[in-house]
Specification:
Helix content: 55-70%
Strand content: under 5%
Number of strands: 0
Radius of gyration: 17 Å
Distance between the termini: 31 Å
Structural class: mainly alpha
Largest sheet: none
Number of helices: 13
């Protein structure tokens, strides 16, 4: 069955918007200081589980930078990405388990962490959310891994779906900011260039929208609306 991708313009981009939906004012420049992000999360969410997730992820990702430093001309600590994902989930008012899993979502995929370790430290629910939010086989081709991620959106439970969208939302925001700084050289950061990246993020958008149609959920609608805005910034401007 062919993938039905609803138009990104279903959520029109209002570039003159104000208030919470005005991401240009509220999200840029992206915060790149982990200590600032940690303080904001801990201020907004008084949770031992979330605080422990921050400490755990910070140790696991210590000394690792996001890819593209040689293209940008400066490095960005990797931990800023899961912290921003966690902050997005906090701002939506989602549960401590979802926020913690969002902060931990790259630990199994990108470090020596195991699901058993996550389960032992944070419980079965958080471990299950992290499993859903992680790519299953990093040794597979880029195309196969991305196809699997797209296909799983239709079956993933709602809780890890929030994490999946927040993760990809932060990736799009990072791409957009890089485009403002280094222009089209941004696409040199990735294993695949702009056309495959557009296919991937647009296909995800179509699957996210199908879930919006099927779920009467204000948090999912808000998160997908932000995703639509950032997709338009990156690929339609």
């Amino acid at each position: 069955m062919a993938l039905r991708v609803p138009p990104v313009s279903l959520f029109p981009v209002n570039r003159q918007a104000t208030g919470k939906a005005d991401l240009e004012k509220s999200s840029y420049p992206l915060e790149k200081d982990p200590s600032v992000l940690i303080h904001e999360i801990n201020t907004k969410r008084k949770s031992e589980l979330v605080s422990c997730a921050i400490e755990f992820a910070s140790k696991k990702h210590f000394g690792v930078n996001r890819k593209g430093g040689e293209v940008r001309g400066f490095d960005i600590q990797f931990i800023t990405h899961p912290l921003r994902v966690g902050l997005t989930l906090v701002n939506l008012g989602l549960s401590d388990e979802i926020v913690a899993a969002g902060i931990l979502h790259d630990t199994v995929e990108d470090t020596n962490t195991t699901y058993d370790e996550i389960r032992e430290c944070f419980g079965a629910t958080v471990a299950d959310y992290v499993r859903w939010a992680s790519e299953k086989d990093k040794s597979d081709t880029w195309e196969n891994r991305k196809k699997q991620t797209i296909e799983e959106v239709s079956i993933v439970p709602l809780e890890p779906l929030y994490i999946e969208i927040a993760d990809k939302l932060d990736n799009l925001r990072t791409i957009y900011e890089d485009l403002q700084i280094i222009g089209e050289s941004t696409w040199d950061i990735f294993k695949r260039g702009k056309p495959p990246q557009e296919w991937y993020y647009k296909s995800l958008h179509g699957e996210f929208m199908q879930r919006v149609y099927g779920e009467n959920n204000k948090e999912l609608i808000a998160l997908t609306k932000e995703y639509s805005l950032e997709f338009a910034r990156v690929f339609e401007d």
